[in-house]
């Protein structure tokens, strides 16, 4: 609030307020561009205090020990990869053998000989059933079953264009089997 300005008499209030606002902007501009007279920056340090040589030396020593330990670990790992991992082998110890080894071997030979003799007896034995006769009987039974069927396989295609469906031998078999069933 500007009380001091109102105490002074003015001829035109409008021009007076314009003049006053112009003076204020000029004053603010000067305040923003003003430079400080006091130096608040950090003072310069001497060169021997800027670098902490002891700290750098300790870092270098630490890195050197880390590198040495890494190299030792790498050598150990490569040795393990190149050689057997099991180090508790003792070749001087001979493992014991079974006391029953000879007995088991004799039993195995005896069983093998018995199996061979049984096989020879089976192969030389004449069969009691004649497989050739079985096959002939099976064919005959199939022929009988085909004659008994309502739609024999031979006549399944009747009406589909097969003209040569009539077989005299089959028809006679059908007739003779049906005549036999009537009597």
From TrEMBL:
Residues 159-183 are annotated as: Disordered. Residues 172-183 have a biased composition (Polar residues). InterPro entries: CFAP97D1/2, Hmw/CFAP97. It comes from the Eukaryota. Signal peptide: none annotated. Belongs to the CFAP97 family. This is Uncharacterized protein. It comes from Saprolegnia parasitica (strain CBS 223.65).
